[in-house]
Fold these 2 entries.
Entry 1:
Amino acid sequence: MEAGTSVLLVEDEALIALSLSDMLAELGFQVCGPADTAQRAVELALSQRPRLVLMDIRLKGKPDGIDAAREIRAQLPVPIIFVTGSCEREMLLRMEAVAAAGVLIKPILFDELKAAIGKALEPA
Amino acid sequence: MIFTGHPADGENGAVRGDKAPSGAQVAADTGAWAGALASSRLAGQRRRLLTGVLIGCYGLATLALLPFATRGGPELPGIIPFFVAGVLTTELTTSFLLFASFRQGRSLSLLLLACAYLYSGLMALPHLLTFPGALVAGGPIIGGPQSTATIFLLWILGYAALASLAVLMHFSFRNRRLPQRKTTPAIAIAVALVVAVVGLLVLVAIAFADLLPSLIEGSRWSSLNLALNSLSVAMLAGSVAAILVLAGDEEELFLWLALALTAIAAANILSGVAGARYSLGWTVGRLSWVLSASVLFLYFMRQSARQQRFLAIANEVLEQRVAARTRELARSHAHLERSLAERDLLLREVYHRVKNNLQLVDSLLGFQASRLSAGEARAGLAEVRRRINALGLIHQQLMQSSDLSTLDVQSFLQALVGYLRTANGADGRAIAIEVSGADPVSANLDFAVPLGLLTTELVSRPLQEASKAGRIEVSLRKSDASKLTLKIADDGLTDRAKPVLPAGAIETRIVNALVAQLGGAIAIARNGGTSIAVEMPHPEAV
């Protein structure tokens, strides 16, 4: 993985965001964010142009993380890894429609995160 | 069924079993019934009055005819077959309808009345056969002159006696009913008795006519004949009086019966006063008899028409109620579905929040652990995080279950072991973990929480202690119909010299407490590897 690569972290739970930030930092990434709303996520994605987005699905208010991902993907060809507490069928179908680079189910373990990011950043 | 009981009874019966709808709907629905009931009560009072008036008129007409009763008419024996045919048809039909009424109402008075009409209908036949010139010229087919008069008097006396007995029984034992199971045997016995009595009387009247007292002298009635005729009139008049005095507004059948008995009594009076056959009184008496025979038949026809009308009203009311109830049910169903959907949403939200909070606790512990150097404290926090995440997994599985209260234990174990494999770094150490167990087990939180924590303890131990590559097998199987066995076995990953559950260790205390909570027993076997089996009651059998 390229050191210093920027990852946009979208997570509305401050402690989980902090925990993921630590893990990303340990993996050598620069953390952009965290954004806690879909709108803020889109703004940061467009202004910071990260190499990867780590997107929680349930965010503060509406729209949710999948809507934000759709908006970002419409303007940037950035890989997006979803982070979710549950994987209901309807949600999985919506994530598929956004062509997610990966889905991580909480709790996220360091090794899982490392493997998912590695796969998402692999050259096509 | 159609002919029995008062229409108002059937009407109430049709409505009574149903739950009444409320408010304006009730008023609208029952309006027709209320109107019908009120009109029925008024009709009852009018019916009594009308019956009294008709009987009075009939009596007056009879009295008016009496001075002319003795006038001779043409000798027409050919009218007897028509008279018999009319009486036979209507009285046997009436008898059948009365037996049907008895089957429904189970009152002995109805049974006796049915017998009276059966008797009268059957006696019409021997009357035809013994009446001179009725079927063959110059004389009867069977019997002699006395046979004709004997059979006729037995006919009118028998009918009057049975009908009077029925009236007496009705007003003496109004509420006495025969048990339902006895109605059919009672009808069979009654019919057999009537047929036997008719047969016996006819036999006696024909075979022993000469030995019996003379009832006809020449062409005129004897004094005994007149006396017996008067006796029949007295019985009939007494019955009519009893009905008029005692019958209630709703006892319509007996009011109609009073008309029938009046017509018969008038026939007997006219015939008795006439003194001989083919007189005016005798002929009018026959016509009055035919009229009498038709009265109850007409009553039943009227009842049938009225029942049809009430049935139509009942049907309409029922259809309205069914439509209203269907609408109400549809509303309730929609409301219930909305409530269920809301409950599901709420429950999923609760599970999500619980899981989220457990993740927050995990994150906090993670921060704390990251500030510690590798050692016992950091390892301890890692243990706690594994337990917390096992709990989180249970809530995740529940959130995804269809009923939101039970989860598929086998699938939960798969997910839990998958997590433990990663959390304990098994992937990098070539340790394979296989989860097996084909028996589907469904359980709620009470079972899943201790089972999940127990599995976390028992699977984490060999994963942490393993010093080489190897294999761990986790299975949950039915040991018998009411028991499950959770088995965690390794192929020698751990140091056999080290106790599996060291005395006093926190892990040991946790395992023992969880096994006790599950109501199970733990067994440890060490051969090539270590096998831990926990047998516990099946959650679906508890």
Entry 2:
Amino acid sequence: MKIKIYVVFLLFIGVFLAFADNASASVTYQTPSPILETELSALYSTCCSFEDNYKEWFYIYKLPNGITMSQIQMAVDVTTGSNLPLVVDIYGDDNNNLDVCDDFASCTAGDTFIQNLFTGNATQITGDLVTANLATTTTISGNLYLRIGLTPQGYTYTASLFKQDSPGTFTACSPGSFGTQNCSDTWKQGAISMRLCDANCPITAFSPLPTVTESPWARLTKATPRTSDFSVFDLEVQVNTGTTTADNIVIEYESDFQNLVPDEYDLTVTGLNVFNFTKNFPAIQDTITVRITMYQGTSTIIYVSPDYTFDVIPKVNTDTEVDPEGVNCESFNTLSKPFCVVLVYLFIPGQNSLDRFGNLYTELDTIKPFGYFTVALNTIQGVDASSTPAYTMPEIPFIDAIFTPFKTAMATILWGIFLFVFYNKRLKNIDI
Amino acid sequence: MISTIFLSIIYVFIQGILLLFRALGEIPANSDLLLGIQNLSSYLTPLQNILPIATILLILAFEIVFEISYLAYKFIRWAYKKIPGVG
């Protein structure tokens, strides 16, 4: 009886979360509602393609109609790209449409220049914040899209902007030290990966590009219906090798059906250079996974761009990758190699089959009613700080030393109790 | 191939369950419920420093996912048995 009441209670919560938002309610908050992540994501998904002369634009924020801007604060953290000129501007795009522009001129056509935030040599601001406040009481008719132009290429940077304090008014947030600001929901990383984007690509792809010697995996899937030319993969990589020529670069590929032999190139030049790689695949591919690895030296991969549009999906759980070495039958002798190939074919699942399970969680995290838990967890864990804490705990010496192990122990005990009770009281009574 | 087929069957089964939830749609932006949860979470955030609030929420979420999925499974099985000539 108790277990039935418990199950009904849980189902009630689930059904409530699934349908409660259809009901109207009037709630007054002391703090105004934040603009949602989903809204921002929608904006980022229609970003511009990369520009001539490597001027880069991306949309930062969408403002409601007829808004009066009072103050905007912005910060750009340039982490690489020394001795190169940098210009950071903010434009307003008041034509109610996100531009999909192929060059700098058409990007700015019809837009309103708001303020130049920085012009100078990047070495002056490397690793530092560029913060500027702008004040205008201009009432914007229609939507306003703020964009940042960076020129020329060669920078890895993060850029960010303001928060909404109340409907119709935007004021600056206090960033504090970069990366730990309370308004992190409104601080977006400007991605060099925009160079991979034309439309409908996630902003987080390849972002931020590494300043270390190894790049992340990314799956490149052609956005448009695939054609025969997808059997040839063209990759453009810009690399800053600095003053050393001791680097080499390895391009590894995975296709739907097999792992291909990596390509390795010696970088015999110094400075900022663009390399083009071409790989012929034995058949038309649905997806291609690429890993770019730099060896030796301290070179930086500035950007990676195929010649045509791709969707870029960060690869999840790279540690679970099937090790190509582990299924490589080349080391077997002539007699045993066919058996190895057959066994691998029969029992090693394709990477896509495994990756699909990893994406299930992503599919669930915005769907009712599970999405509400995602929102709550992100807020509590500080992933999405759109809701700043309603109060702060007093500073207690050694609080971390005491409560961190306590929390870990409590979490372990809670999971243990839950699994024990769940198995004994629920799974044993379940009717399949 | 065998592993891939086996995994695909599991995946299709899970997708079948998820199909029901997709019909509910995504959480609406700026809905009162969403804002209420965010607002409530902002009060729980400081407690996360001393108590495993996230763990408790995860357990609750896991339980609800399980119960709803099980209910969906029973519903699908019930509908399947209503097909003439089956069960």
